[in-house]
Specification:
Layout lengths: L4 H4 L4 H35 L5 H4 E5 L5 E5 L22 E3 L7 H4 L8 E4 L8 E3 L1 H4 L1 H17 L7 H21 L3 H7 L3 H5 L3 H14 L14 H4 L6 H16 L2 H18 L4 H40 L9 H23 L6 H34 L3 H16 L2 H27 L2
Antiparallel strand pairs: 1-2, 2-3, 3-4, 4-5
Length: 442
């Protein structure tokens, strides 16, 4: 039994498992390594001592990536192999984004195992304590989902989650083109064929297909007296197939149907290029985002962006009421990163959303299509009227005369008369024999 598109490109257990393993692996990596490194680099670069301040204090990197200020004369005594201690630092600048517990007695400052610690003059009198469990967990998961999706775009269809979604959308969009245009599969395949394949295509067959499309996309009225450009006037042996299709044929389809149909054709053509080389993920991503994700999930993304904005407003409001201390801004960071992620997703969705066609052009195309259908119906009506007149109208007398003439010719034919006389003589002889037999038996 032949598989349907949905069955052939179905997301299976193997796709889900690969995606889940990738997301879990990347989430752990980002949360344990990537995010701490990025946050530390950002914070230290902004609040570390610089300029004249470095002439008064030393700034040293200790073990586990801890960076703290020390007395200027002791700066050369410490290195990355040394553990930070209460006797080694002067507690003016401390940046600790490690996963180790610190105590005042041993290290000179206190923080929990799942906390990050930052202290600097520009940050205020009190140190900033970040709690990454709810401040950065969500952000790490979102980053891992984006990266896992990116990698599965380039994987084989057998294990690539996004790859199989791209394949399914290519086939679905081909079906949409066929339904919207009414063209058979052979013509649709020609229209979406990559340029390098079309250049090697049989020219005779290509000409037949182009001629069919050209005649099918006539926009002028049949009875208006306006004649469009004929196919033979623009296509000859010197015309390149690729250039003619990409400019003349596409332009004619665009004018007869819509801009969106041509955009679907071009995006499917790019999708077929991605099918041959999955490293060209951008071409596959466009057809999936433009013709599936934005159409189906656009409102969902907008709703999530508004939801993230609501969370951010509430968090800032609570902070304004002093219910969130300035030294523990993790909830504010969570709200900011949530809204940032939703806005990025919304921006990507808008980037791939197709622009709506101008209303005046849509009305013009609807008018042309209606006029074309009306002229066809008028032509059919005229043909039926002519046929009716031929049967029961002005030619009725002609038909009557033809019938009478045929009968006369038959009756005056010598062969016909002889055949009729022979039949009558035979019937009389048989009747006489039958009567004689009946008399003899009495």
């Amino acid at each position: 039994m032949k598989q349907t598109t949905g069955q052939k490109y179905k997301v299976r257990f193997s796709h889900r498992m690969v995606m889940l393993v990738l997301v879990a692996t990347f989430a752990i990596f980002f949360f344990r390594v990537g995010v701490p490194f990025g946050v530390q680099a950002f914070v230290v670069n902004l609040f570390q001592p610089y300029g004249e301040k470095l002439e008064k204090v030393g700034f040293v990197e200790f073990q586990d990536g801890v960076m703290a200020s020390v007395r200027k004369e002791n700066e050369s005594k410490f290195s990355k192999s040394d553990i930070v201690s209460a006797g080694s630092i002067n507690k003016e600048f401390i940046f600790d984004f490690s996963w180790e517990t610190r105590t005042i007695e041993e290290h000179g400052y206190a923080k929990g195992k799942w906390e990050w610690y930052a202290k600097a003059q520009a940050l205020g009198e009190h140190a900033i304590v970040l709690e990454p469990w709810y401040g950065f967990t969500m952000f790490s998961i979102l980053l891992s989902i984006f990266l896992a999706a990116f990698l599965t775009m380039m994987m084989p269809n057998s294990i690539g989650w996004m790859a199989v979604l791209f394949e399914r959308q290519i086939e679905n969009t081909k079906i949409k083109i066929r339904l919207q245009t009414g063209f058979p599969d052979g013509i649709v395949n020609m229209l979406i064929m990559p340029d390098n394949n079309l250049a090697d295509y049989d020219r005779v067959e290509a000409e037949k297909i182009f001629r069919f499309v050209w005649d099918r996309t006539v926009t002028e009225g049949v009875g208006s007296g306006i004649q469009g450009v004929r196919f033979d006037e623009v296509f000859d042996d010197s015309v390149e197939l690729v250039s003619f299709r990409n400019h003349s044929v596409y332009a004619r389809i665009k004018e007869f149907f819509s801009d969106f149909v041509v955009k679907e054709i071009e995006d499917v053509k790019d999708g077929l290029i991605w099918r041959k080389n999955h490293l060209l993920f951008g071409k596959g991503l466009r057809i999936y985002m433009a013709h599936h994700f934005t159409e189906k999930y656009s409102n969902n993304v907008t709703g999530m962006a508004y939801g993230g904005a609501a969370v951010l407003i509430v968090a800032i409001g609570i902070r304004g009421l002093k219910l969130i201390p300035a030294s523990r801004p993790s909830l504010i960071l969570f709200a900011i990163l949530l809204e940032f992620s939703m806005l990025v997703l919304m921006a990507v969705t808008l980037f791939y959303t197709e622009e709506e066609e101008r209303m005046d052009r849509m009305l013009k195309k609807m008018e042309d299509a209606s006029r074309s259908q009306l002229e066809i119906m008028r032509g059919q009506q005229y043909d039926i009227h002519q046929l009716t007149n031929a049967l029961v109208g002005q030619t009725a007398d002609i038909i009557k005369k033809r019938v009478e003439q045929s009968i006369t010719e038959y009756m005056t034919s010598g062969d016909a008369m002889q055949s009729a006389i022979a039949d009558e003589i035979g019937k009389k002889i048989m009747r006489s024999i039958k009567e004689s037999y009946m008399d003899g038996t009495k």
